[in-house]
Amino acid sequence: MKNIVSIVILTGLAACGPAQNDPGPGGVTIGEAKALDEAAEMLDERNSPPESIEKTATAVPAPPAESE
Question: Is the whole-model pTM more than 0.85?
Fold first, then answer.
C-alpha cells in the first residue's frame, strides 16, 4: 500500500510543469524568458526588411476606378 501511494505522488509531481519563477535559460526565470521572446517577436515584426513590405503591398489588389 505504501508503494502505491508513493507511485501516485511521484506521478502527480512528474506531471507538473515548471513554475513561472523557476530558473530558466540564461539565468532568467521562465516567465521572464517568455516575455523576452514575445518582445523580440514584436521588434522583429516592426523591423521587417523593405522587400517583405513591397511583396505584401503588391499582393493587395487596387480598388476599381470610378467612372465619372
Answer: no
